[in-house]
Amino acid sequence: MILILGLIILIAAIVIGLAGIFGNTGSGHDLGGGGDFSIFGYHATGSTGALFLIGIIVGAAALLGLALVVMGARRSARRSTRARRELGTSRREATAVEREHERERDELIKQRDDARAETTRDDTRAGTTAPAADTAPPMAEPAAPAAETTAPVADAPRGRGRWFGHRAAPR
Question: Where is composition skewed (Basic and acidic residues) in this entry (predicted)?
Answer without folding.
Answer: 83-125
